[in-house]
Amino acid sequence: MSGPQRDPKGKSARAGRGTRAGLRVLEHVTEVTAGGGELADVLQRVVEVIARQTEMDVCSVYLLDPRAARLTLWATTGLDRSAIGKVTMAVGEGLTGMVIEKGEPVLVVDALTHPRYKYFPETGEERYHSFAGFPVLDRDDPIGVLVVQTLRRRRFTPNETRLLRAIAGRLASVIVTARLVEEVRSKEQERREYRRQLADATRRLEEAEQTIGAPRLVPSRARRQARLNGLAAAPGFGHGRAHVLRPPVSFDAVEERHTTKRASEQKRLARAVQAAREEIEGLKEGLAARLPEFDGAIFDAHRLMLEDQGFLDKIEALIREGLVAESALKRVVDEYVQTFAGMEDEYLRERGHDVKDVGLRLLRNLLGVEEHRRAVAADSVLVAEEVTLSDLVLIDHQHLRGIVLATGGVTSHATILAKSFEIPTVVGAEDAPEVVSEGDLLLVDGNAGVVFVNPPSDVQREYDRLAREYRAFNRELDALHDLPAETTDAHRVRLFANIGLVADLPFVHRHGADGVGLYRTEFPFLTYREFPDEEEQHQLYVRVVKGLDGLPITIRTLDVGADKYPSYLHMHHEENPFLGWRSIRVSLEQPETFKVQLRAILRAAIHGPVRIMLPMISSVEEVRRAKEHVEEVKDELRRQGRPFEPNVPIGMMVEVPSAVTMATSLVREVDFVSIGTNDLIQYLLAVDRNNHKVASLYEPLHPAVLAAIQHTVQAAKGAGKWVGICGEMASDPVCSLVLLGMGLDDLSMGSFFIPVIKRIVRSVSTTEVRALARDLLSLSTVKEVKGHLFDGMKSLGIIELMEMYH
User: Can you give the pLDDT at residue 218?
Assistant: First the structure.
């Protein structure tokens, strides 16, 4: 037995208690609304009851003006009451607006760090962290939002979520009833005025339509309005005309036809096979030029399939029986796909997709449909069921303002490319191919995962306003491009970029990075079907180093394991892979493959300033063994007479508690240190941030995390070594102030965030932020840290900048 058995009766009793408690809350809500009165008074009584009965620190109600598409605070307890009626936001703003956009609850463990968080100084809400917003619906139409907030980071339980949903439903009837009463009480003159305005609006609409004339220039179908919900895959928002990508051919349209001209059909098949081979070679070259991290071997596999005599013999046999080439091809491809689909091995199942791709390529050539680079008009939004590697090569991304996919995930190849090109992307919008027509106007919100189809004018105006503000903010940041990240008292900090693809390089330059602080080398290892050899790695690293035009780059050695395993490693199952065989442990146990990567890096280092960084170091022994391999590689290269850079600095990442504890000893073994906060926080607090039950405990500003960072910084400084940080904390404006005050030499982040962090650095003095950091390090709770930090941000004038950033 692995542990105590659960008592089903106990579980039932707990569920019963939760149900009864929920009913009591609903009864209290009903009681306070029974007295009637003005709507504002009723709502105020409701929020006070909800907060008291559910033990929430804040409860608020926002009502929606559908015509203006704006939400206004009508009642609150916990926030400053003077903010009622003053705090207003568009539906495209803030987490509360996101509830209306999505039409479903929004639950956030730490609202302050969410990209949609909007700060309202008049509410005093900066001390509240967890956020839960529930749409108040009248017959599926949104009329408001019920919001609860808590001081501490926490995840709302399913019982709480169900209860608050039910309360939101009760609120809807309260609001509708109160508004009906107000309407009945309104004067007849007001009703007549409303009817007159409505008649005027109708007449103007008819006059406008007559001016346009008939037939109308835009088909009625193209003017259909809709909102699609999906997954936010690449941030930002853009708008443009829909370019719907549809497959040029499909087996669904192929019927079984017969012919007596068997020799002619066999010749057609041979020509189609040859044309497909030539296309595949061209695609492989195009992919290598555009995205060298992807494994070109996938196209080799397609080419080999076209040379597989068994595959071709089956098609030819059916042609000899009298089928036309298209029909024979369809029957064989269907047979292969069904066979692979029934296999248990995942790799073999995926081979079915390869067969279908090859089959469609042959079908297109049989039908005489040419494959060509897909022209995309300026300011287009690409809409598709899915995007293949071939599509990535053939589509010109320069004109794309957004991407909307019906399928796919946030880690798909298309998503990775979209992020690299900074194209707002929404995936998982299932109805997109059916709802969207060519030429429709689309608004893509890659932050919220929402797509508006032919949006109404008020929504379009609001996004236009956001775009203007965003452009103005970026123009202000662009003025800082060539200026150093230097405090007001002349302390210089280097702002580096994190990259993983060659396609990331233009954005390193665009956003004014001082270099690359973290180059993740895993991507080709994860996409290649075999371990990439020395030449493949060397060519890739040379391209990256040269692409930086002399800026420094820190290359992290292979960091696989946990949730990132190449298929060719054939990993055995691990109960806890995050504490298992990963990162430097894999490299040290496979020294030959580790040395292949080291050789490639050292050879590439002759083209620019390169540093090597070792991931997940937990002991001095690991550093020494890795350095021994580096020296062995240097000796091998000398004997072979191959040029390389012998003086490449060797550094390490601090990501585990033992590295923090041993920091004084470890820093003596390396040339530099970089703190990887993502893993460090998980290991230090024993929290898996992907586990919803404990994710609320993942806290970058936890006193233990701050103490670990400070200890590491002091150890490095004491040894005369530079120390940086390359986790997500570096890109968080709130955390960046603390890191700056702790004395970090450099911060490395996604290049997109560099201008904002530079603006913050140039807005404060070292003296001020060091004093702030010293105060924070003396505090004992997250609540105290965040409260004091926000007070400090107010005194430094950073709050306004934070609002613009979000």
Answer: 37
Q: Which of 629, 702, 726, 735 is catalytic?
A: 726
The 3 state secondary structure assigned to 453-481 is ECCCHHHHHHHHHHHHHHHHHHHHHHCCC
Confidence of residue 408 (pLDDT cuts 50, 70, 90): low
How high is the pLDDT of residue 572? 53
Tell me the domains of the chain and their CATH numbers: 12-184 (3.30.450.40), 222-246+375-456 (3.50.30.10), 251-366 (1.10.274.10), 486-652+725-805 (3.20.20.60)
Please identify which of the residues 399, 413, 491, 806 carries the catalytic annotation: 413
59 in catalytic set: no
Cα separation, 452 vs 430, in Å, equals 14
Whole-angstrom Cα distance, residue 341 to residue 360?
A: 17
Measured CA to CA, the distance from residue 726 to residue 729 in angstroms comes to 8
pLDDT in tens, 317-341: 999 999 999 999 999 999 888 887 7
Average pLDDT over residues 717-739: 92
**Among residues 503, 280, 290, 547, which one has the least CA distance to residue 396?**
290
What is the C-alpha to C-alpha distance for residues 179 and 168, in angstroms, rounded to an integer? 16
Are 518 and 494 a contacting pair, CB within 8 Å?
Answer: no
DSSP assignments along 761-797, one per residue: HTTS-HHHHHHHHHHHHT--SHHHHHHHHHHHHHHHT
Residue 87, pLDDT above cutoff 60? yes
